[in-house]
Amino acid sequence: MNGRFFRIIATWLASLLFLISLGNAWAHGEPKITVTPEVVAPGGNLEVRGESLTENGEITISLQGALFVTTLGTATGDAEGDFIINFIIPPETPGGTYLVRALGADGKTASAQITVTEPPPTPTPEAAATVSVSATPEAEAHPEPSAAEHQIPRSRSTGEWALILLGLGLSAGVGLFLVRTRD
Amino acid sequence: MARPEEIQLRGSISPTSGRLTLWWDSTWRGLDERLGLSAFSYPVPEYANRLPYLLGGITLMGFIILFATGVWLAQFYHPHPSEAHSSVVFIITQAPLGDIVRSLHYWGANIVVLTVLLHMMRIYWAASYKRPREGNWLIGVGLLAVTTGLIFTGTVLKYDQEGFEALAHNREVANLLGFLGSWFSLEFSLSVPLLTRLYIGHITILPGLFTLLILGHLFLIKYHSISPRPSDEPAAVPERMSRFTVHLRRMIGFGLLLWAGLGVLSVLAPAPLGLPAVPGEEVTKPPWMFLWLYPLENVWGVQGLFYGGLLFFALLALVPFVDRSPYRSPRRRRWLLAAGGILFLALVVLGLYAWATVPVAHLVE
Question: For domain A31-122, which architecture applies?
Fold first, then answer.
């Protein structure tokens, strides 16, 4: 009787804990930050948007990588703990994956992942002089999301065509033979 | 696969073919003694060699094609956010046979989803999930879940706008799951991007799970034998029997025809690739097999997406436990078949609705 009672209690407690954890996950107002862009070059601009962090308080934004950690700066949350701020990724930042972490004065924290690309090689004066402009600076700086297909030239050599046709013919021929052969 | 004694009979036509036959006979005996190949010649009902009962085997052939093409693509794909899209462009434009192999992989994945669904419908129609095959039905549902995971991660990997938005959905579902979704969170690993971890999932974790499940699936098919016909009347005449080697031969034959069909599709309609991902407004829709979830997300947000999928798999898993009657005949299971038909119709209608409407922004981040 006692064993059964304790098993029931334990099951209820486990269910309760599970529901509490789910409830936490569902709850609105979880601190969160969004970074744009997610892939950025050293020296590039990074926009950090925060929600539901420290209300009317200071929030420290840091960049944390496996080999490089730095503080980007501080932001101030509004009455709801939201903020938008721009930072420059330090030019000396090595390429790699980083967490951008926002830590509020009250301990609320949120993070997002970015990739910092390898720093570009310093161009020689000759190379810099031959750079051609293929798009307007505005379009390069603020591209819009698009569902359009990437137009890529797809060409095949004669050898590739021969291999493809041989493969198709063999597969179809042997396949038909195996399927149609009587028991 | 001819039996040695058959070959020996046919081989007595001329001295040359007789020698050849003797050589083949001894080679076969040697191989069979060491590898036990004749064990594959066990009896199976003749109806198992018909197309509806070969759909599972054809799906398996499709997965073998996906594995082979996937290994080739892995030689050229770079699973890093800053390189992924450009490496797919490289595969299309410069890698040897890259475009055709990628297209085979893409079309293979699409066709495999279709054959899996047809296979499950055949099992549902024929009540092949009934005792003692409930466990194998559940393994099949698990295989469908793994297939879904493979399609999803594969969509993300190309890292175009569609892949990027799929990844963003993945992160939102992970947030919803809290601790249970921590593997999908950015914080799980500081040194490896989420895209790279999903790639690991696509090429090791999910195929590993698939292998374990398919081994269990095949074992249970052999253990319980091919499921009976969907009839409750005792057979007037004994069931005509065939051999598994015939079943296997037709399975491989259909697999090769599938390969050829995929090749034609790949040449006529190469696998698409979207533009490089740009964060911002959500502008794409998911691949067709996930489209039915899209209207649910329109209404209930990411919770609709997650719980809609969960409900679908829960309903599938419950089938053998809801239908406890001893009947296999579709005539005596009308209500269950009607329920399955309504669910299928609902998924199709939701999918068509999502296809016809303009994309809606769901993402919070």
Answer: Sandwich (2.60)
